[in-house]
Amino acid sequence: MNKLKNFLSQINVKDIKPSTYVSAVVLIFTMVNYVLNIMGKPVININENEIAAWVTAIVGVAGIIYSWYKNQSITKPAQVADDVMQILKDGKITLAELEDFVAKYSETDLDTEADFDDIEKVPEDDVDDEIDEGSDE
């Protein structure tokens, strides 16, 4: 039993190619047919239309699950959030720095995609200048 556990723990499911899965399914299907034939039971009889329908259904369900799992970002704010997440993961900015930035800009009204575009276009050095020029002090 320990040998089986060791063998199963060494399997790298992430890097298995789709053709390997197809080969495994065909092999299992063939083996089941052989065993049923030897036992005198009716063999599994599937025509091409049924195979095509099953393959289409499996690919469709796999696509739906992948899209749901992968969290596809299609809006500009979602894409910016993905960029920020990557910057955090790369260590280019700390969580504390990001929280300070969010606190600073959450006081303003940034509720449209145009507002996000404006933030991207203003260089960091110019932000302080604009704030200073607009003050009455």
State the main characteristics.
mainly alpha; 7 helices; about 70% helix; disordered C terminus
Global outline: elongated
Rg, nearest Å: 28 Å
* Quaternary status: single chain
Return the average pLDDT rounded to an integer. 76
Number of strands: 0
Helix content: over 70%
Largest sheet: none
Tell me the structural class: mainly alpha
**Helix-strand pattern, N to C?**
HHHHHHH
| Unreliable residue runs | 126-137
Strand proportion, as a percent range, falls in under 5%
Number of helices: 7
State the separation between the terminal residues, measured CA to CA.
Answer: 79 Å
Structure description:
By secondary structure, this protein is mainly α. It contains seven helices and no strands. The chain has helices spanning 2-9, 18-38, 48-70, 76-90, 95-106, 113-121, 124-134. The longest helix has 23 residues, at 48-70. 72% of the residues lie in helices and 0% in strands.
How are the secondary structure elements laid out?
Elements: H1 2-9, H2 18-38, H3 48-70, H4 76-90, H5 95-106, H6 113-121, H7 124-134
Task: Give a summary of the structure in a few sentences.
The chain is mainly α and 137 residues long. It is 72% helix and 0% strand. It starts with a helix and ends with a helix.
